[in-house]
């Protein structure tokens, strides 16, 4: 078996960039959402439904959640790779977290599009 030597400045760059990009998406959405909430005429159920009635707000919210879940996946995966030495335990934890995040993504889509 040939061992691959990983060296250089680009190792982990994709994960680092993904963390930063998803953080920017989440920050921009948060500012947009807070601004939108403050201009709502009332904070009742009808106003919240009206805010999410448009396709743009649903899409932006779904993009926020996908960014959140991917951001969480990269972070938790890196923590597991750094601190869990047992390969079997690490694979089990990776699988559990991955399935949970996929389930949460489906749940978010169901909530957003059943309004």
Percent in helix: over 70%
CATH class value: Mainly Alpha
List low-confidence stretches. none
Q: How many domain modules?
A: 1
Biggest beta sheet attributes: none
Number of helices: 4
The CATH topology is given as 3 helical TM bundles of succinate and fumarate reductases
Mean pLDDT: 89
* Spatial extent as radius of gyration: 19 Å
> Can you identify the CATH superfamily?
Fumarate reductase/succinate dehydrogenase, transmembrane subunit
Task: Describe this structure in a few short sentences.
With 115 residues, this protein is an all-alpha fold. It has helices spanning 13-38, 45-51, 55-83, 87-113.
Structure in words:
- This protein has 115 residues and is mainly alpha-helical.
- The protein has one domain: Up-down Bundle (3 helical TM bundles of succinate and fumarate reductases), CATH 1.20.1300.
- The protein has helices at 13-38, 45-51, 55-83, 87-113.
- α3 (55-83) packs antiparallel against α4.
- The longest helix is centred in the middle third of the chain and has 29 residues, at 55-83.
- The termini are far apart.
- The mean pLDDT is 89.
């Amino acid at each position: 078996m040939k061992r691959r030597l990983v060296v250089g400045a680009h190792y982990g760059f994709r994960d680092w960039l993904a963390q930063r990009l998803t953080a920017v998406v989440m920050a921009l959405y948060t500012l947009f959402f807070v601004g939108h909430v403050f201009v709502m005429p009332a904070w009742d159920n009808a106003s919240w439904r009206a805010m999410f009635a448009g396709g743009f707000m649903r899409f932006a919210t779904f993009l926020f959640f996908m960014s959140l879940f991917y951001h969480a996946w990269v972070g938790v995966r890196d923590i597991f790779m750094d601190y869990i030495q047992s390969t079997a335990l690490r694979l089990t934890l990776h699988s559990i977290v991955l399935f949970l995040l996929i389930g949460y993504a489906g749940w978010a889509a169901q909530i957003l599009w059943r309004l």
